[in-house]
Amino acid sequence: MEHTEQHVRDEAYYTKTISASLRIGFVGLLIILSYLILKPFLVVIMWGIIIAVGIYPLFKKFALLLGNRKKLASIIITIFALAVLLIPSFLLMESTVAGVQNLAVELEKGTFNVPTPPETVASWPVLGGPIYETWKLASINIEEVIKTFAPQIKEFASSVLSGVIGLGATVLLTLVSILIAGALMVKAESAEIVARKAFKILIGKQGEGFTELAGATIRSVVQGVLGVAIIQAVVS
Fold first, then answer.
1. Count of CB atoms situated within 10 Å of the CB of 88
2. pTM beyond 0.85, yes or no
3. Which of 1, 6, 40, 198 is the most exposed place for a label (fewest CB within 10 A)?
């Protein structure tokens, strides 16, 4: 009788173990598949989370001013951020393309003129002489200068093209990240609660403090990056 009861307990134990293993394996498979699906978008999602955490205090204050209408606050902030990003980027790209087109037209028609360099250029230290001679030759015969520096011009043009493509990709990445940040801010309180619980489970009693520290660190970095960007934009 005891042997039979032990056999039943062992069988139940093995059944539970196999069932738990299958469930854990299934959850692990779902995590792996989710990662593979989201992998191409992880950078954009992470940037969206960083932006949302960085501007969350501003979002809370603005939402209160609007009568705690979080969706409206999120929409206004998102539109404003997109305008700040897209308008200067569009103007820069339009100016660059127009400048290149005008230069190409003037070179083709032979109407492109380089002014004669002032004599003071030759007195510049180290590079004054070569710059003066090249500039003077360009003012007399631009075609000769183009032929002489053709490899450098091609390399420079390639760098400019790569820079423009890189700028376009960065603008697109930031645009999508801002849209994600706008959507996340609406559910920020729920996400904060989940984050606190997750860190509490992973770290213990210090989890809540770690959550505050992580948020403060992200906000400080975002504010520093934005501050430097504003300074560079003003200088430019």
1. 13
2. no
3. 1
